[in-house]
Structure formats: structure tokens, C-alpha cells
Automatic annotation (TrEMBL):
Source organism (scientific name): Schleiferilactobacillus perolens DSM 12744
EC numbers: 4.4.1.2
Modified residues (N6-(pyridoxal phosphate)lysine): 206
The protein, known as: homocysteine desulfhydrase
GO MF annotation: an example: homocysteine desulfhydrase activity
Keyword annotations: Lyase, Pyridoxal phosphate
Domain of life of the native organism: Bacteria
GO BP terms, alphabetized: transsulfuration
Length: 392
């Protein structure tokens, strides 16, 4: 370009391309706003912001590219991406529920999602948090006011599966929205929309990002539902992902199949060697579940996520501390889905009542198997158990 003044350099440098090129990696469109060639175009685009690039708080080409990929992976009509999984969850509930509505949250669910649903009491939304051993039991909790059944399958902490088709069938006749947080299985191992569920939510911060370096979320479903969540939840609450984080998530999608195939194999290798250890009272993961859980897993999952729960044999805080602090390869840390294996005890020294209410002992630990050699992880868990209990 031929610059004549400072503004030419600052604002017009991107309008001309010195030499045509095709980058192998996608480009990041790191901009807050977009130019319009004419006033006409500005009026048309800003009247339909969900389909046009006006301002990145609405839409952006890098974010759109991620949304198209996620919609395709889930087999959904449309996807909207958010700044976090919680941004996606809160925007969905905020948009689809109104005063007088009843929301059923089934089995263990990511805690902040339950807290947000509870908070909606302030706006007249009634939450029922129920625990069921069997999917059929949900029906008895549906009322005239029920507007949404929200669940995870497998669930957080206890990793119990529910029957997606039964939930979809009981909700359809009563015009109840069904919403699943599908983060555990990723969009590769489970396709809830194919089984009649209305909305799938993902935290992109886990497997999709895959490297513990981004926070994001997504909502996928029919166009009219996603557009409604865009127009209200996304636009009003402003949980907007940055183009850079969207770009990182796109990069994550490039290796998602390879990483998921790896963890599917790794988790089975690890659980096969832990499930008979007398120092472990219980493992919560569909691979180790009863016949009904395994039936549901074979019906709905094409692979296993590598997040599981483990109860140490004794409800002994000292043994729990020795075990967790003795781990050398597995680290202590929140979140999951990245390279590194993690251990996260549910007990924080002051929340026993809370755990009891969820049916968890204080010795419950959420474990994540990452991308290290699974044998190294087993050896690490065994040596830490040896420190807590002595060798077996
Ligand atoms: N859903 C599940 C199953 C999670 O484990 C998390 C964890 O953080 C979330 C949702 C929330 O996602 P984010 O941390 O991206 O807000």
C-alpha cells in the first residue's frame, strides 16, 4: 500500500494483500469490529447479526468456523460458542426458562450449573434436583410446570448413565426441553441429538481444547433454539469467546480423534488394573458399572471418556492426604481433558455434609487419565496407595 498519513498505516494496512497466500493452519480474525462497504450493507448486516459479521460480541469468522465444525461433529443444525461451559449453560437456562417454570436436574451435575439453576429461584424458576437409580423414575417428578430436563450422561462425580431415548420420549409429548451436558464423552463418543435430545452443551475447556490452555463452551441443537439462545443468552449476558480461544479450540479439533482414541484405550488399561485393588472400595465409570450401565454404555457410547471417580477403602482423611500428596505423575488440579493426568479429592476438609447429600464418601477422588503412558499412571497410583496403606 501507499501510505499517505498515519491513519493509512493504522487502519488500512489490512485492506490490501501484498501477495496471495493460502495458510495451512486457519487464520485468526482477531478483530472486535468489521468494516462495511456501504451504509446499505451496514443496515442489512446489523439487522441480522447472528448471520453477519458486525461486532465480535455477536459473530466472528474464526468463532463461526468453530461453530460450524462443532455443529457438524454433533450432527446438529447449529452451534453457538461461548466464553466458557458455564456461559453456555447459564445462557441456555436464562433463555429457555421463565417465571413459574420447573426445571428437573437429574443425578450428579457439574456444581456451578446446579448453583445457577438454584439462583433462578429469584426469577420464579423452581428447581428440583433429583437422584434416580433408573431413568423411568424421572417421569414421576415431571409436573405441569416442567419446562426442562437437564442432565449429564455419564454424570459428573458418579459417572452414571441415563437412557437418552427414554428421556426424550417422556419430554416430547409434554413439550419439555431436554438438555444434556455431553462434555465427558466429547462430540466423538456420543451423539445425543440422534436420540431425540434437544440441546447438547459442551465445555470446550476439556477434551475439545485438549491442552489445558483455553476456556470455552458450546450449545448445539435445532436452528430456532440456538438462534433464540444467541439472541438472548449470548447477546445479553456477553459470555463471548475470544477469536484466539476459538482458534485454539479449532486446533484442538484437529487432534481430537487421535486423543480420544488414546484415552479410550488408556482408561481401560488403567481401570483393569485398579478395579480389583482392595485399597479401592469403588470405581465410578461406565466401564466398571453394573449390567444395566454397561448396556446403556454400549447403546450410547462409541468410546470411553477418561474421567472417573474412585473411593478409597477407608473414609480416612489422613490416608486420603497421604495418597494424594504421594502421587508423582498424577497432579492435583481442577478441570480435565488436557495432556496431564489429575487427581481432585472431593473432600475439602469442611464439606462432608455436602458430599453425604450427594452419596459420596470423604474418600472420593475424581481422577482424570491424560495422555501419559497409562502404565506409568497405574504405577504412580499403586506407589501412592502403598504409601497410604502399605504394600499389598
Ligand atoms: N460441564 C462439566 C461436565 C464440567 O466438568 C465443567 C467443568 O468445568 C463444566 C461443564 C463447566 O465448564 P467451564 O469450566 O468451561 O465453564
Amino acid at each position: 500500500m501507499k501510505a499517505e498519513n498515519y491513519a493509512d498505516i493504522v487502519t488500512e494496512v489490512d485492506k490490501e494483500q501484498a501477495e496471495p497466500f493460502v495458510p495451512m493452519a486457519p487464520e485468526i480474525v482477531q478483530t472486535s469490529s468489521f468494516y462495511f462497504a456501504t451504509y446499505e450493507q451496514f443496515m442489512a448486516d446489523s439487522a441480522d447479526e447472528k448471520n453477519h459479521f458486525v461486532y465480535t460480541r455477536g459473530s466472528n469468522p474464526t468463532i463461526r468456523s468453530l461453530e460450524d465444525k462443532l455443529a457438524w461433529l454433533e450432527g446438529g443444525e447449529k452451534c453457538k460458542v461461548f466464553a466458557s461451559g458455564m456461559g453456555a449453560i447459564s445462557s441456555t437456562l436464562f433463555t429457555l426458562l421463565r417465571a413459574g417454570d420447573h426445571i428437573l436436574m437429574v443425578n450428579t451435575i457439574y456444581g456451578e450449573a446446579v448453583s445457577f439453576a438454584k439462583y433462578l429461584a429469584k426469577f420464579g424458576v423452581v428447581l428440583d434436583k433429583i437422584d434416580v437409580g433408573n431413568t423411568d423414575e424421572i417421569e414421576a417428578h415431571i409436573t405441569e410446570q416442567t419446562k426442562m430436563i437437564y442432565f449429564e450422561s455419564p454424570s459428573s462425580q458418579k459417572f452414571e448413565m441415563l437412557d437418552l431415548e427414554k428421556i426424550a420420549a417422556m419430554a416430547k409429548t409434554k413439550k419439555i426441553y431436554t438438555v444434556i451436558d455431553g462434555t465427558w464423552a466429547s462430540p466423538l463418543f456420543q451423539h445425543p441429538l440422534d436420540h431425540g435430545i434437544d440441546i447438547v452443551i459442551h465445555s470446550l475447556s476439556k477434551y475439545i481444547g485438549g491442552h489445558s490452555d483455553l476456556v470455552g463452551g458450546a450449545v448445539i441443537g435445532k436452528t430456532n433454539l440456538v438462534d433464540n439462545i444467541f439472541a438472548n443468552g449470548h447477546q445479553a449476558l456477553g459470555a463471548v469467546i475470544s477469536p484466539f480461544d476459538a482458534w485454539l479450540a479449532i486446533r484442538g479439533i484437529r487432534t481430537l480423534p487421535v486423543r480420544m482414541a488414546y484415552v479410550d484405550k488408556a482408561i481401560r488399561t488403567v481401570l483393569d488394573q485398579l478395579k480389583n485393588d482392595p485399597r479401592i472400595a469403588k470405581i465410578d465409570h461406565p466401564y466398571c458399572g453394573d449390567a444395566e450401565q454397561q448396556r446403556l454404555a454400549s447403546k450410547y457410547l462409541s468410546g470411553y471418556g477418561s474421567l472417573f471417580g474412585m473411593d478409597m477403602a477407608d473414609e480416612d482423611f489422613d490416608k486420603l492426604k497421604v495418597f494424594v500428596d504421594s502421587l508423582r505423575v498424577v497432579s492435583i488440579g481442577v478441570s480435565w481433558g488436557g495432556f496431564e493426568s489429575l487427581a481432585l479429592p472431593s473432600y475439602k476438609g469442611n464439606n462432608k455434609e455436602n458430599l453425604v447429600a450427594r452419596g459420596l464418601p470423604i474418600s472420593h477422588i475424581r481422577m482424570y487419565v491424560g495422555l501419559e503412558d497409562p502404565q506409568t499412571i497405574v504405577t504412580d497410583i499403586h506407589q501412592a496407595m502403598d504409601k497410604a496403606y502399605g504394600k499389598i
